[in-house]
Write a structure and sequence with these properties.
One of its GO terms (molecular function) is siRNA binding. This is Arb2 domain-containing protein. One of its GO terms (cellular component) is nucleus. This protein is α/β, with parallel strands linked by helices. The protein has two domains: 61 residues, no CATH class; 243 residues, 3-Layer(aba) Sandwich (Rossmann fold). The protein is 43% helix and 16% strand. The strands form two sheets. The protein has an eight-stranded mixed β-sheet, sandwiched between helices. It has a two-stranded antiparallel ribbon with strand order 1-2. The longest helix has 20 residues. It is globular, with a radius of gyration of 20 Å. The C terminus is likely disordered.
Amino acid sequence: MEQTTVEESQRWFVAHGWHFDNNKDFVDKDGKFFDYPTQGQHYEYLQEQIRDLVFKEMETNFDLEQHQIPKAKGQKPPVDEEEKKEFDVYCPTIFTSKDATFKPNLLVIVQGLGMVPPGQWARKLFTNGLKDQYKLATQMPYIEKAQKHEDWGLVLCDPNHASPEPKTEDTRAHHVLRVWQDVVAPSKAKNIMYIGFSAGTVAVLDLYDTLSVRPEFVKRVKAIALLDGESGASRQAQGQDGKWLQDHSRAYCQKGMSGFLGPNSETVNTHDHDSVPGLAVDSVFEFLDEMLQIFGEDVIADKEKSQ
């Protein structure tokens, strides 16, 4: 495929008037969708602009804030300006709702692998030529539902941060652990919930493997939703902690993948992996609410008072 410079892609982008229309479809000034066979040389630039537009919506319409999560615990940004620039390149940036760490309930979302930034599930859905993909491609429906709960905080992780370093299963798991260390664990939340999609399920379950021996983790984490990735079934069979995971998790799987389902699983009505989160959103939040009703700190306290 023909190579282009950033400047060429920028001119192409402006000349074609790419934008989100009133239906939230990403189209050019003539209402046409992106065509990869003829426009693929501009794909990465286009996706960067979509990323920035989604970021702007999260900040403007949902009042979310960006926070850096250094790779090392306790690491501070350098004072030197040049060193700070390099630090920024390699430092993941998460999004959180305002006062997220002061809410009694905290929801943490981890997307799949690839060049997928916070706020998105699958960037290729923006450019697949189909209408009505925005609510499937982005995490906006999840953000909207979370913010309907006034006592919920929200954290969107950044395991695929746009640094030159290669991303692996270990780097993704490390990022989710660092978010726990810097944001989740120090928060005031009594009830913590995780949602992982695709490879994000592995990162969340790796966090469980790392921290499940700690009373704080099994006491505060009330729900884990696993979307079309690892179901957790193999880990449920390991030791006493498997019972906790079985009680607190649920897996959501695309049609035709029932052989991979564990005991607490649901099939989502699609054969498209990337569409699973968007189509499962109502069921996922029903599950989260159910877990809070059963295991929520305030619920348990009320039960103890009545005894």
